[in-house]
Specification:
Blueprint lengths: L18 H20 L7 E6 L10 E7 H21 L4 H26 L4 E3 H26 L8 H19 L6 H29 L4 H24 L12 E2 L9 H5 L1 E2 L1 H19 L1 H11 L1 H6 L4 H28 L10 H11 L4 H23 L6 H5 L1 H13 L17
Parallel strand pairs: 1-3
Antiparallel strand pairs: 1-2, 4-5
Helix pairs in contact: 1-2, 2-3, 4-9, 4-12, 4-13, 4-14, 5-6, 5-7, 5-12, 5-13, 6-7, 6-12, 9-10, 9-12, 13-14, 13-16, 14-16
Length: 434
């Protein structure tokens, strides 16, 4: 009688490199790096975080915070390492799982002030300015993400947001440039320029809809063609019509929100700002309300998830998609107007610098929801602000590497930190009525 020589199955599961464990490894490496870097900092060095208004000569409305740099970084390094070890083990007891998840959230919250303190070691940095700059730089990303939501919730992939932004930035500025010499008031000329920018984005969106909805062209190819077309056309317009004239025009002026602009610390930094900055919040609220609290939003989501079922209920699928693509283009056009009419008062080749693609990343990070996308845009806006701040404090890295910060953050977030992102089921699929 022979006995089987097969090894007995161990009841313990093998080690799997799950998403939690990948984040845990990142925390371990990051924590060790922070702890070792803290060893090279003078123990008496103090970083001062100030909370001031932006007006010169005004005293801080809130007291400063003095942080012992070396001690703080050592403590944060140990916290990151401990959190990484706890999550790497993936303990099964409920209380340990809750503790490890809570520590991971704490590490995520503390990461931003840690980077600021490390970058400004021994110096003084104004936190109010950083917050205001992050919001300002997040403006085109958040608006662009809203454009993506309008389009993709209806089932149409829109990687052409970058091209729509670039077209809008170019034609909006060109309109302002030629209108300002016609005797029109500057504010009227600027308003007309913004309208032209918005309509330019909508017109390019109609081209995208014509290719992807009517002719059922691959939507990725259609968007790529528009992005390439935008680079060529806007470069031609700048070379032929703008280089022979003066370099720039006036930027959109500031608007002060009554009462809110008088608040201490944040009043002047946030509530005294430019028009497109405030429009970001209007579009955010409008998109959220329409998508989740109106009949049109319900139809849009139905078309993006189950177009055949929506058709059987009497919803015109392609007309709904056409409308949403057009709205998406106009929203993207407003984001493009931010670059040339609000941020710089000029137009340069490729000035959007990939903002349309980062906006799409924010949309994915936010799971195709307006609030989530806005939070992701703030993260990317902060990373852009951080790159500028690191250049100002003279961190010993090449400028080119510091300019890569927002794009690196985009890759890291999409690759390892958002988990499984499920788009609308019918996105990218042309609809043919049976």
């Amino acid at each position: 009688m022979s006995t089987s020589s097969k090894p007995k199955a161990s009841g313990r599961p093998g080690f799997k490199l799950s998403r939690i464990r990948i984040i845990a490894i990142v925390l371990l490496v990051l924590g060790a790096f922070i702890f070792l870097q803290a060893g090279g900092i003078d123990g008496d060095l103090v970083t001062t975080l100030t909370f001031e208004t932006t007006s010169a000569g005004e005293s801080p409305s809130v007291g400063n915070i003095n942080v012992p740099t070396s001690s703080y970084l050592r403590l944060i390094g140990l916290l990151f390492v401990a959190t990484g070890i706890l999550n790497l083990a993936e303990l099964r007891a409920l209380r340990w799982r809750r503790a490890s998840l809570g520590l991971m959230i704490v590490c995520g919250v503390l990461f931003i002030p840690t980077v600021i303190i490390a970058a400004a070691a021994g110096n003084e940095t104004n936190m109010t300015t950083i917050v205001a700059e992050s919001l300002r730089l997040a403006t085109p990303l958040a608006i662009g993400a809203m454009a993506g939501i309008w389009c993709e919730r209806a089932g149409v992939v829109n990687i052409a947001i970058e091209g729509m932004m670039l077209f809008a930035a170019c034609f909006g500025f060109t309109t302002l440039f030629y209108l300002r010499n016609t005797g029109l008031a500057l504010e009227t000329a600027q308003l007309l320029a913004v309208i032209v920018a918005v309509l330019s984005g909508g017109l390019i969106a109609l081209l995208h809809g014509w290719l992807s909805i009517t002719f059922r062209t691959d939507q990725i190819v259609s968007g790529t063609v528009i992005n390439i077309l935008a680079v060529g056309v806007t470069s031609f317009v700048r070379r032929e019509y703008l280089l022979s004239t003066e370099a720039g025009a006036a930027k959109l002026g500031n608007i002060s929100i009554p009462v809110l602009s008088d608040l201490p610390v944040i009043g002047e930094a946030i509530f005294t700002n430019q028009p497109i900055f405030f429009m970001m919040f209007v579009i955010l609220a409008f998109t959220h309300v329409v998508m989740f609290y109106t009949r049109w939003g319900l139809r849009t989501r139905a078309v993006g998830e189950h177009p055949h079922a929506a058709d059987t209920l009497g919803i015109n699928v392609n007309r709904t998609r056409w409308t949403n693509v057009w709205i998406s283009g106009m929203v993207a056009g407003l984001a493009g107007a931010w670059f040339s009419l609000e941020a710089t008062g000029s137009f340069n080749d490729g000035m959007t610098r990939g903002a349309g693609f980062i906006a799409l990343a924010a949309m994915i990070f936010g799971k195709w929801t307006p609030i989530g996308a806005f939070g992701a845009a703030l993260l990317f806006g902060f990373s852009d602000s951080l790159g500028i701040r690191l250049q100002m404090v003279g961190v010993g890295f090449p400028v080119q590497f510091l300019q890569m910060v927002p794009y690196a953050v985009t890759l890291v977030v999409l690759a390892g930190f958002i988990g499984r992102a499920s788009p609308p089921k019918a996105v990218g699929q042309p609809y043919v009525k049976e």
